[in-house]
Amino acid sequence: MRGPLRVIRYATVTSTQDVARRLAAAGAEEGTVVLADAQTAGRGRWGRRWHSPRGGGLWFSLILRPRTRTGGRFDPAAGQLSLVVAVAVARGLERAVGADLPIRLKWPNDLLAGGGKVAGILLEREPRSGAVVAGVGVNVSFPGGPPRDLPGAVDLVTALGRPVDREDILPPLLAALAEGYGAWRSEGFEPFRREWLGRFPWLHQPVTVAVGEEVVTGRAADLDEEGRLVLLLPDGSRRVLAAGEVAWRCPSPTSILFLSSSRPAGAHKADSPGQ
Ligand code: BTN
Q1: Does the beta carbon of 42 sit less than 6 angstroms from any atom of ligand 1?
Q2: Ligand 1 pocket: which of 21, 45, 50, 61 to mutate (most atoms <8 Å of CB)?
Q3: What pTM, to 2 d.p., does this model score?
Q4: How far apart are CA 31 and CA 55, in angstroms?
Q5: Cα–chain center distance at 122
Q6: CA–CA distance, 61 with 195 (Å, rounded to integer)
């Protein structure tokens, strides 16, 4: 990515992913950011709805054009990039609000703070150009507080217990994304893998992971070089999980209870919890 990110701002869009994908297909440069004050059809992973009220958060999509080391097109499903983006957003948020709100990560790329999910990341590939569109949603201040139909969601204002201006958060967040992406391209995944593990509260703890229809229980042992989660199963064998929808059983009663319902890829449930 050359130079600073270029932000294109909209009042309302269906989804910044849609706009960014159209721009990417039309040749928009890497580093173009589509930001909206509100989304009418914001989406999350697994076809979930992403609640994006006007002024309630930062809703944006960043166009990336990563190449593999051999010059080929990059497959975002190969987990590294989504975890790199998660670490970068975590760094950016901590820089923006100060060290009093440590950001934790839930595999693969949910950002947790103050007892809930404060931000989520959605990577999509634009098939015509091969660009990757990294969608970032940060819940900053829901009008009227976190909606009841989104158990597990929290906004930054609630997590911090003080007002936050989303306009102050955007610059450090975008800077952290640009830096993180550049560092991944030049230094590789290993520093991000280590930082990701440091932010993962469930390391070496029992977890329940639901991948599609299947439920796997084991101890979260590691994150591999592709960003896959390595589980140690009760029979002593290892199971490596790539992309999938996950549900966690928390390591202790004091831990964040945060469950995402599992469903097969492509299924849609508009009122699903878990933003
Ligand atoms: C998730 O946790 O399920 C991912 C949520 C991603 C939400 C962001 S908001 C900006 C961009 N536009 C969308 O429609 N989704 C992403």
Answers
A1: yes
A2: 50
A3: 0.89
A4: 23
A5: 6
A6: 23
